Fold each of these.
Amino acid sequence: MLAVGTVLGWVMLLLVFRLGAVERGEEVPAGPSLLAGTLIAVLGSGG
């Protein structure tokens, strides 16, 4: 269950980051989002 908490934590951080960037009127680069998505997938499958 630790992996589930870790993945949820990463998803929350990613959502907060994206929402914050949108509120400032900034474009969210695809690179960090893709990297975060990959990291979440690795953590999820690893757990």
Amino acid sequence: MTSSAPAVGFIRGLSNQGDLTGGLCSSSSSSGETPGDRLPPVPTARFLEQAKSECHFTNGTERVRYLDRYFHNREENVRFDSDLGRYVALTELGRPDAEYWNSQEELLERKRANVDRYCRYNYRVDESFSVQRRGERG
């Protein structure tokens, strides 16, 4: 039997909540080794993936803009903008994600609902705490 090194890769996709996810995967050779027998080599390339959700308020909650922003190596490449109701590619790297996510109507509906479900909800929670704290200070 010949032995080969395990294959290692990075899987990127959407969770069932529509959020970007990723993780390492590996597979073992057919030589009878189990995945724990050998550790995959440490990747030499380094990269940073970030996601940031932002709520921008004007005049209390009268006007709310929700942004869901995705970065690769500190460069924003795609974002969901509630004012537009869709994803916008900011770089060529973000174009395939924006096109795919914009084709998923359920995902877009969930993201559009975040103006109320995420932004306005958290604004009210924070506002009630802030008003209570101001009253305690006298």
Amino acid sequence: MPSRHITSHDPGVSETDTKQDAEAVFDRVTRRELGISGADFLARWDAGDYEGVDVDDVDGLAEVVGALPFVR
């Protein structure tokens, strides 16, 4: 049985049913807000590129960080 994920606050998305769906939502949000793929964002996040950065100082970063529970 696929694992269930949290309900999205992204307009047009009510719920994700699978890990693949969750990753697609995260990728879409990340591309829309930061212009990079979800995978690229996660690599940068894990490398510490956003450490010490106020999410409100970078346009779209707060939205992407808010979507992290979809993939983490």
